[in-house]
Amino acid sequence: MASGTNNNVPLLSIAMPTWNRSANLQEALMHLLPQVTPYSKQIQIIISDNGSTDDTQDVIKKVIHQYPELNIIANKNDTNLGFYGNLWKCRQLSSGKYLWVLSDDDYVCEGLIQEVIDSINISKKLAVIYLKINSTLTSFIRKRMSRDQLLAEEGYHIGLISSVIFLNEKQSDKALYEKYPTSAFLGFIFLLHAFVFSRNVI
Q1: Across the beta sheet with 2-3, what order do the strands follow?
Q2: How confident is the model at residue 40 (pLDDT cuts 50, 70, 90)?
Q3: Of 15, 16, 148, 161, which sits most exposed with the smallest number of CB within 10 A?
Q4: pLDDT digits (tens, 9 = 90+) for 67-87
């Protein structure tokens, strides 16, 4: 059963599927939610608990209480749907123009949420934001490229679902999920589908 507090259509949905890793989840949310607060009307947070038996629900209730101004959608699956079933559930619950799926042990670095929102706002017909780590840099650098450049330069790296934020177009979701219900590439398939609508990347 899912619950939420805000019906506005957000610019970005950030989804976090989780299962029996409450300590990781709490740490991840403590990195993420303070950065989301200035963008409470633009960002939707989805936390989808895949039937955890630890204290995951207590962690979720705590952050909802701690951040009442945020649009947090809390879902608990009655049974464990597997990772890709839970990913699909996150996709169904998301209503943002863009979707970013984070693992419950992805700790968002300082300033990244502002950078993501700014990148979306300055771009027209953007399909994908690809987040690439470079440990030698001390600030964010934006680079515009086409779909073909991204695929040629980054290859299989963009298959890491938490490194991509993509246009959240769902018209073909039912057919895609029926065809690839347990595919390890489900997130990558959603990403590629975004290129139907645009080929622009940051």
Answers
A1: 2-3, 71-76, 43-49, 12-18, 98-101, 164-167, 126-130, 200-201, 145-146
A2: very high
A3: 148
A4: 999 999 999 999 999 988 999
C-beta separation of 46 from 90 below 8 A: yes
> Which two tokens mark 197?
């609508």
| Three-state helix/strand/coil letters over 82-98 | HHHHHHHHHHHHCCCCE
b vs e for 2-28, b when ≥16 Cβ sit within 10 Å of the residue's Cβ? Answer: eebeeeeebbbbbbbbbbbbbebbbeb
Q: Assign residue 97 a region: left if phi > 0, alpha if psi is -120 to 50, beta otherwise?
A: alpha
Helices (H), the chain: 22-36, 56-66, 82-93, 112-122, 147-154, 173-179, 186-194
- Residue 26 DSSP SS3: helix
Task: Return the number of other C-beta atoms located less than 10 Å from residue 78's C-beta.
Answer: 7
User: Hey, what are 162's tokens?
Assistant: 């938490």
Report how far apart the first and last C-alpha atoms of the chain are (Å, whole number).
35
Q: Give the three-class secondary structure for 19.
A: coil
**Planar angle of CA 96, 138, 136, nearest 5 degrees:** 110
CA 29 to chain CA mean position, Å: 13
Q: Six-digit token pair at 2?
A: 């899912």
| DSSP assignment string, 60-116 | HHHHHHH-TTSEEEEEE-SS--HHHHHHHHHHHH--SSEEEE--TT--PPTTHHHHH
